[in-house]
Amino acid sequence: MLSLPPLSLYVHLPWCVRKCPYCDFNSHEYRDAAGGPPPFAAYVDALIADLDLDLPLAWGRTVHSVFFGGGTPSLFPAAAIDRFLQAASARLRFAPGCEITLETNPGTAEHGRFGDYLRAGVNRVSFGIQSFDDGCLRRLGRIHDSTQAEAAVKLAQDAGLDNLNLDLMYALPGQTLAMALHDLERAFALAPAHISHYQLTLEPNTVFAARPPEHLPDEDLAWDMQEQGQALLAAAGYAQYEISAYARPGRQCAHNLNYWRFGDYLGIGAGAHGKLSLPAEGGDAGRILRRWKLKHPAAYLAQAGTAAAIGGDEDIAPAQRPFEYMLNLLRLREGFALAAFEARTGLPRAAIAAPLAEAVAAGWLVVGDERVRPTESGLRFANDVIALFLPAPGPAVAAQAAAHGAAP
User: Fold this and answer.
1) What angle do CA 258, 247, 22 make, to 5 degrees?
2) Is 361 exposed, middle or buried (0-12, 13-18, 19+ CB in 10 A)?
3) Domain residue ranges of the chain, discontinuous segments joined by +
4) How far is CA 17 from the centre of its chain?
5) Is 317-408 in CATH node 1.20.950?
6) Could you tell me if residue 160 is left (phi over 0), alpha (psi between -120 and 50 degrees) or otherwise beta?
7) Which pLDDT score, from 0 to 100, does residue 402 have?
């Protein structure tokens, strides 16, 4: 029977100083004829109205994490973040110690601002460093350099923030193995609680997809960067708990863990996506609803708080739920309990018996003590494992599999 998982709140802040050529997120360069800043106050008003629209989907539930993503959330002044958090916590119960993350571009960090974010309630900051090599940063179109990156992290630490994530990418244009490993060493010197380490990919509808950069590392070199990077991270005390996430003990990202464990989340803001479980009376499979908002900030601002701001609603059909569940859970080293699969999907474990047996026979998954865990091979070939759980192929299924990088 479908039961209620933990609830998170995702808040999308869509503007950037400059759109990076590899970025496929819903981010927009703000261009104002008068040279003014984005409409921060009006956008916070829209976020609050948007939250009010979605509240009936989450009445009485407790929020366990909040994540301000973008775009570049650190463009927003702390007063705007504070006003939204006050409004949200007046409408929804925040759990004690609720993790509240703000994504930050080192090129937008200012002295004093981190202390104001902390006082507003932000207790975790995620820095989009990407590399500590200035040549790599230029080729990625970043607005900061390595000196600014290190300074921004230290400013946050000086303000009293100690739960910090550093995003690092590898297989960058012109990057050697030594350069990739040196990026990690530079990160270790700053002693963050968490490091995200992932390969640059050329996503559709990006500048890099249309005009691929020169001197990209080949697959063998990219694999060496990943494998040797994982060894360095482990030696430095960062345990891998997800394919691209590494943390000190007790410092895993609670918000992302809730995504990966097929938890629920409200999605507020331009282009934000949410997922809500709606158990039914009588013990049937219930509903799992995905909802997303209008993508373009101008359209979102004009419609926020009304049904017209909803870009779409979609029920995840029971036949699709095993794939949706595995798409998340099989990224985690911990795997999942079979009882958790039943609770989060509303389906019996028999619904995954055949593909699970196939994955075990292939050496990708192991089953024991009522848990399913990926092997090292299963983590490496996660897309192939996940594809086993697709329902019978059809045009819609094939399109979704392609969008998630899995083959039907």
Assistant:
1) 75
2) exposed
3) 7-258, 317-408
4) 21
5) no
6) left
7) 39
Question: How much is the average pLDDT of 249-275?
Answer: 98
pTM as predicted: 0.93
108, two tokens: 């937008």
Domain 7-258 listed as CATH 3.40.50.720: no
Strands 15-16 and 7-13: unpaired
- Give exposure, 53-70, as e/b (b: 16+ Cβ within 10 Å): bbeebbeebebbbbbbbb
Burial class (CB in 10 A: 0-12, 13-18, 19+), 205: exposed
Task: Tell me the CA distances in angstroms from 394 to 47, 71, 328, one per residue in order.
Answer: 37, 34, 22
Q: How far is CA 408 from CA 318, 328, 375, 386, 390, in A?
A: 18, 17, 22, 10, 7
pLDDT digits (tens, 9 = 90+) for 307-350: 999 999 999 999 999 999 999 999 999 999 999 999 999 999 99
Please answer whether residues 67 and 10 qualify as being in contact, where contact means their C-beta atoms are separated by less than 8 angstroms.
Answer: yes
Answer whether 346's CB lies under 8 Å from 286's CB: yes
Question: Buried b / exposed e across 251-290, counting CB within 10 Å, b at 16+?
Answer: bbbbbbbbbbbbbbbbbbbbbbbbbbbebeeeeebbbbbe
> 314: helix, coil or strand?
strand
